[in-house]
Amino acid sequence: MIKTVLIFLATLIFTGCSATNVLKPEASHVRIVDEIFASQRCEYLGEVIGSEGKIYNAIFISNKDLTRGARSDMRNQTFDMGGNLIVTDFNALTYTSSTVYVGNAYHCPKVLNERMK
């Protein structure tokens, strides 16, 4: 009886172990770049910190999903702040239980393909 209950609880816990930060459809236009564009007149909105993974579920989530979740978290936050561009150096802070990205959120009137020199 106890063995059955433990198996049931373990199954219940581990089926919930997946990336939790899902990209909002309306945030899908938020771009992540490593440099701000020269011809932009972007308004700085603040720092964003995207993370994915918890101590109890990170070992069950692939690195790809941890990365995607952390980036989605940043993009969602930037959208919620009214932004459309994140400037980051693309270096993730990877811990044993999570992945973290740090960036700066901006609202730019128009996002161009020209990079700042």
CATH homologous superfamily label: Hypothetical protein apc22750. Chain B
Helicity, as a percent range: 25-40%
Radius of gyration: 18 Å
CATH architectural group: 2-Layer Sandwich
Task: Write down the domain tally.
Answer: 1
* Helix vs. strand class: alpha+beta
Average pLDDT figure:
80
Number of strands: 5
In CATH, what is the class?
Answer: Alpha Beta
Low-confidence region ranges: 113-117
The DSSP helix count reads 2
Query: Which percent band covers the strand fraction?
Result: 15-25%
Structure characterization notes:
The protein is α+β, with helices and mostly antiparallel strands. It has a single domain (19-107), classed as 2-Layer Sandwich (Translation Initiation Factor IF3). Helix content is 27%, strand content 23%. It contains 2 helices and 5 strands; from the N terminus they run αββαβββ. Strands 1, 2, 3, 4 and 5 form a 5-stranded mixed beta sheet that branches. A hairpin with a 4-residue loop joins β4 and β5 (99-107). Mean pLDDT is 80; it is low at 113-117.
